[in-house]
Amino acid sequence: MMLSKGLKRKREEEEVEEEKEALAVDTWWLDPGHPAVAQAPPAVASSSLFDLSVLKLHHSLRQSEPDLRHLVLVVNTLRRIQASMAPTAALPPVPSPPAAPGVADSLLASSDAALSASMASLLEDLSHIEGLSQAPQPLADEGPPGRPIGGAPPSLGTLDLLGPATSCLLDDGLEGLFEDIDTSMYDSELWAPDSEGLKPVPEDGSGKAEAPELDEAELDYLMDVLVGTQALERPSGPGR
Amino acid sequence: MPSHRVPSEADIISTVEFNHTGELLATGDKGGRVVIFQREPESKSAPRSQGEYDVYSTFQSHEPEFDYLKSLEIEEKINKIKWLPQQNAAHSLLSTNDKTIKLWKITERDKRPEGYNLKDEEGKLKDLSTVTSLQVPVLKPMDLMVEVSPRRVFANGHTYHINSISVNSDCETYMSADDLRINLWHLAITDRSFNIVDIKPANMEDLTEVITASEFHPHHCNLFVYSSSKGSLRLCDMRAAALCDKHSKLFEEPEDPSNRSFFSEIISSVSDVKFSHSGRYMLTRDYLTVKVWDLNMEARPIETYQVHEYLRSKLCSLYENDCIFDKFECAWNGSDSVIMTGAYNNFFRMFDRNTKRDVTLEASRESSKPRAVLKPRRVCVGGKRRRDDISVDSLDFTKKILHTAWHPAENIIAIAATNNLYIFQDKVNSEMH
């Protein structure tokens, strides 16, 4: 009797586990059975590959002169990871269980858009390294909202879902992230309110070559949004 | 490296290169210094120094600079050294850091004039009233002095970081490549260069690929190759167009679907490309393999050698600690029959293309006393472990052999292990397994 009860409990636990797995973002790299993870030092096991790549990206961009090769490789890897996490990705999925229907497409899209927006603007800033005599290129180059961010590879299907509704989300989501950037040198007529036809940007502007400092809370928030365990809401960032 | 100085980061060797005869070996380091070694001629009177290399000259090639316009510090680290073919008694080499290439001329002085009319022995002007007769200065032998002087400075040609330079077989021009562009220079002209490759996209956010290495063909002065971070090689013909954005040939191997991972692209990034001495093949190094390509076949390499396949299951950790971005070089031996490349734990690997045998050797003080025979090493991945095997988990990833060079004619190799230079000669244990 005890044995069968124990067995039954175990099965229920397994079912609950499976449901959790279905909701969770694919994290094969955390599976202790996976050979790559078996050798990983403890510090890696607790963060996801996505988080790690975002950290690497920002660290790379924070350098006064980023190593372009490192940057490009990290960005491309991040795109692969993003593509594998999105249910509608055009890329064939990396061997992993598919993301569960629990993750809303629009949430993913807006979070991807937020990340892609920051990545795109940060990459754009690299072109400023070449000649400071050039005026900072207005983000009009990237096209109006509702279209994919200029030049994004077609395989990033989620970017196509950028819609007018997400512009408010972008504003709210990114405001806290860019608060600490000094953008006084970029305050010019180009950023005037009448340029509302442009892709929405945070009020503080994003022309600074330096990447925003994402603290742990905000990274966790990003992760939670992607995992779908948390509805998109205004982050309680500094100064709020 | 002088033994009285504590080794610092500036002493880390960043490039190694034999000259065309192998008589000279140049090293560059992170501190911007170049050290040139010369091979002692073998002589019966000193049989113990059988063609060993001694320090010939040391000079400061590059200094740290500050770009005031962009508020950026420019590292003095020497990225590459390339020798010019010797055309007279002097030797010349090109050395480059991230931004500036310099042409250095190395000359020997073993005589000096004595008996000046206006100066005395110390060089002080003589009191003219003491000069009663004229004499012709006579050349007298003196201790050998090696003089190095900068003859050209090729600056302001690159916005991005220079990763390679290559002297053309015409001995008049050379090219320099950075992440996005390749420039062609004339050795005598410093105020302008021609841009021959430009892969910078109109929007930097479209950037997905960078140039990682480039080299001129050893015989055809119009041909050169450049490699990319996506693992492709492009052979370009300068006769076809002034701007060589369109390649003549594209060498790419399709991705192996069974080995696909998030890191596929990173490990496919080519870190070095070298033409064979014959000019018929190219050798490339990516993170886990070295590959030999036939110029006549673009679809795939003709040979692939696993350098450290046991790392494939550890790519996640290696990504986390950035080791996956390490750039290893590769080298051909003089007859193009053996290829060599470095690895971790101060190991380096040699592959015999004919016998298909390979060997792993270690460059360390402990394992190589002078004139000792190098013992082959083995990395075990679990399972049966032999006595001297190293397990994968014990590998020291801070000890990387990124830079290696092979004498153009003889079996002499130069291995840079962090801040130490090892030169191994033909007495190397030829046991291959």
UniProtKB/TrEMBL annotation, chain A:
> Which Pfam families does the annotation name?
SERTA
Q: Which GO terms describe its cellular component?
A: nucleus
Which residue ranges are recorded for the region named Disordered? Answer: 135-156, 192-214
Ranges for domain SERTA come to: 42-89
Task: Give the domain of life.
Answer: Eukaryota
Q: Where is the composition biased (Basic and acidic residues)?
A: 201-211
PANTHER family from the UniProt entry: CELL DIVISION CYCLE ASSOCIATED PROTEIN 4/SERTA DOMAIN-CONTAINING PROTEIN 2, SERTA DOMAIN-CONTAINING PROTEIN 1
User: What is the name of the protein in this document?
Assistant: SERTA domain containing 1
Q: Which organism is it from?
A: Phyllostomus discolor
TrEMBL record, chain B:
What the record says about family reads: Belongs to the phosphatase 2A regulatory subunit B family.
The name on file for this protein is Serine/threonine-protein phosphatase 2A 55 kDa regulatory subunit B
Checking Gene3D superfamilies in the record gives: YVTN repeat-like/Quinoprotein amine dehydrogenase (2.130.10.10)
Keywords of the record, alphabetical order, are: Repeat, WD repeat
Top-rank taxon of the source lineage equals Eukaryota
Transmembrane intervals = none
Keyword Repeat present in the record's keywords: the answer is: yes
Q: Which InterPro entries match?
A: PP2A_PR55, PP2A_PR55_CS, WD40/YVTN_repeat-like_dom_sf, WD40_repeat_dom_sf, WD40_rpt
**Can you list the GO cellular component terms from the UniProt entry?**
protein phosphatase type 2A complex
Q: Name one GO molecular function term.
A: protein phosphatase regulator activity
